[in-house]
Design brief:
The protein is an alpha+beta fold and 97 residues long. Helix content is 23%, strand content 19%. The longest helix is centred in the first third of the chain and has 7 residues. It is globular. The chain binds iron/sulfur cluster (2 copies). The site of one iron/sulfur cluster (SF4) has 13 residues, from helix 2.
Length: 97
């Protein structure tokens, strides 16, 4: 018998230590996001860190970031994402490796 586990339940198993004073990913220019026709980061991030806001630009909250790098790749044309790993001791701990 196989057990089906939803992605949300798997993500819930992860643990994060948020570096409040130094977000490891930043959007360089909100204005650039406003002119971005795809706003692909809002649909490609597996942790839903990016969301469209009422101003027509994009809001980023890195608290649940999986450090997968997808957003950095997806925004390569515009180079509008400044991406680093969190400082030592911060970020995600994967329960299942
Ligand atoms: S893909 Fe890049 S430029 Fe486009 S909305 Fe996302 S962060 Fe902004
Ligand atoms: S690194 Fe991955 S999980 Fe983190 S914000 Fe970018 S796409 Fe989302």
């Amino acid at each position: 018998m196989s057990i089906v586990v939803k992605i949300e339940e798997k993500l819930y198993q992860n643990r994060y230590i948020v570096d409040e004073s130094r977000p490891h990913i930043r959007i360089r220019s909100e204005a650039e996001c406003k002119t971005c026709t795809s706003q692909a980061c809002t649909v490609c991030c597996p942790a839903a860190c990016y969301s469209k806001n009422e101003a027509g630009t994009v809001t980023l909250v890195t608290d649940g970031c999986l450090e997968c790098g997808t957003c950095r790749v997806i925004c390569q044309d515009k180079e509008n994402i400044q991406w680093d790993y969190p400082r030592g001791g911060y970020g995600i701990s994967y329960k299942f490796g």
